[in-house]
Design goal:
Elements (H helix, E strand, L loop, with lengths): L3 E2 L3 E2 L29 H9 L4 H13 L9 E2 L3 H12 L10 E11 L2 H8 L1 H18 L3 E4 L4 E9 L6 H16 L3 E2 L2 E2 L2 E9 L6 H26 L1
Parallel strand pairs: 3-5
Antiparallel strand pairs: 1-2, 4-6, 4-9, 5-6, 7-8
Helix pairs in contact: 1-2, 4-5
Length: about 240
């Protein structure tokens, strides 16, 4: 079921990220501006166990201060544009001492299907459990930059190394494999869950803003959501 994603790193069941590292770039040297290590205060609280109510409040506050979503442990929505802006700058960087190791950036927008219905029928605690399980699946499938946006929306920023041929066909293949492995046999207790997904790729030399890329990936995701609903209705 799990293998190796081009640009996405090794994928194995149980392959959890270390407590103090939420993401690494696979095949791309990680420059200082993409450092995601937790600060000393949060690392110490986690090391001590963080079981008390006071510790939990401290952990939540420190995570929010660092731009980490307190429910899932993923990067928070407020981090998206700044991280993406830095990747775009790095993608097209040319200097006398070095050249960018990036060949392209894939932006993947995800939205859990029927999440409002899950919350209404099963309750918000069950809904939170679904969000955490989905976030954990994303960690298993990719070691790229993963964000939880508002509610049930998520985002993956996937830097692709400069030594790959980034054709439209290659990009589509990367996305389709990612899509299949995220949605494969995914459930919360007895309830199957899935996500609609859309993507956009920015290649070296192309000029688009972070806002443009996020908007286009979002629109692609809604196209996929409509297709999934039509497919579901056709089978019912």
């Amino acid at each position: 079921m799990f293998g190796r994603l081009p640009g996405g790193g090794k994928i194995e069941k149980g392959n959890q990220l270390p407590d103090d590292e939420f993401s690494v770039l696979q095949g791309v040297p990680s420059p200082d501006f993409l450092d995601l290590t937790l600060d000393h205060g949060l690392r110490e609280v986690l090391r001590e166990g963080g079981k008390s109510r006071a510790d939990q409040a401290t952990i939540k506050g420190l995570k929010e201060k660092q731009g980490i979503d307190s429910l899932t442990g993923l990067l928070a929505e407020g981090e998206v544009e700044s991280r993406l802006d830095k990747l775009i700058t790095e993608l097209n960087f040319v200097g006398e001492q070095r050249r960018s190791t990036l060949g392209a950036i894939m932006v993947v927008y995800l939205d859990l299907n029927d999440f409002k219905q899950i919350n209404d029928q099963r309750g918000h605690a069950f809904g939170d459990q679904a969000l955490v399980i989905f976030a954990n699946r994303l960690r298993l499938v990719t070691r790229d930059l993963i964000f939880r946006l508002h509610g049930d929306e998520f985002l993956i920023l996937m830097p692709i190394a400069n030594d790959r041929t980034i054709s439209d066909e290659v990009s589509k293949g990367i996305f389709k494999r990612l899509q299949a492995e995220i949605n494969d046999n995914l459930s919360v207790e007895d309830l199957p869950i899935s996500a609609a997904m859309g993507y956009i790729v920015l290649k070296k030399g192309e000029r688009k803003s972070a806002k443009d890329l996020l908007h286009e990936a979002d629109q692609k995701m809604y196209e996929n959501k409509r297709e999934m609903k039509l497919g579901s209705n056709g089978r019912s």
